[in-house]
Amino acid sequence: MFNKKAAIGETMTWVVATLVIVVILGFSIFYVSLGWNGGKEITIKDSNKQIRDVAAGQTFLAYLLSKNDGGEMIFQGILDTENIFEYHKGANVVLGKKIFKEIYSEDYPDLKYFIVVEVTNKDYLPKLEDSLDSFSNINPGNLNFGTGRVDTNYPSGKGHFFKEFVPFEVEGKKMKVIEMGMAKK
Amino acid sequence: MNKVGTEKILAIYWFAVLFIVAAAVVYMAVAFYGKPYDVRDIEVNLLINQVVDCMVDAGYYNGKNLNLCNLNFDVEKFEEWSSEKGKEEYYVEVSVCGFELEKGVVGCDDPVPIGNSILKQDCEIQNGGNFSVCLEKSVYTIEKGGAQKIIKIFAGVRKTEKNVQ
Known about the structure:
Chain A is α+β, with helices and mostly antiparallel strands and 185 residues long. Chain A contains five helices and five strands; from the N terminus they run H-H-H-H-H-E-E-E-E-E.
């Protein structure tokens, strides 16, 4: 006579095991075919190969080449000033805020930038490195200044980074922006 | 207890479980890898970059019209895709506006379109998925004389047959 209780216990074990397997597989299939709607994304992690935001880059450059209320080119003012943060506290930042609020408030709600400039002719000007400014929230009452360099991965891998950008001329001095970075929030 | 019978039933059970697991793995692999990569977001960004590069030189607006940018939409042959005028898989529209510090964007010119304008209507229904992928970007730029401009660029890519399943 065989042991009925033992047979029932063994059968229950297999039934439960089967159910667990089926549930796990069912969930996986559901996740892949129905619940998983993220699509296959392509991300370019190499900062040198990522898709540049040329529109934002040219906008930023045009802003630097624009003139402030005093008729001085904003970029020239940045080069001449000893304290870039003080320079941007004044009226010079109004145009920048207007431009970026008008155009990039969605893409760059917390815009930070840095520029590295190299003067390419003999009239040497001090190299401007790691100049950083922030149009935080593009709100005049909420202007914050950061320090340090904009990392291409700052703050969440959505930074845009430009290298060997474009040569241009400011009042006879040939220069080229060799690095420029903008970070999305 | 009939051990031989039990072992046979267990063997059948094991084969059944093995088959179910293998079938599920194959199904998931096909479901995942069978989906195409949707690269239209990248394409539409590159298209806009191309237009910006054409119309803006180092921050300055060069006055070029979109028609002078020599955009070539005949780049791929796939299924029923056509490069005939009005049937392209791409669409670009550009309008040049003024910009004033107090008023912002003012006085836009009539938009200059190139490509298949149906894509714009497509995107008004739904952007992406089984419809076209569209993107609109604006560029602030200045003329040599100092006049400030905003160039509004709208671009769309269809190519659903290749990017969407």
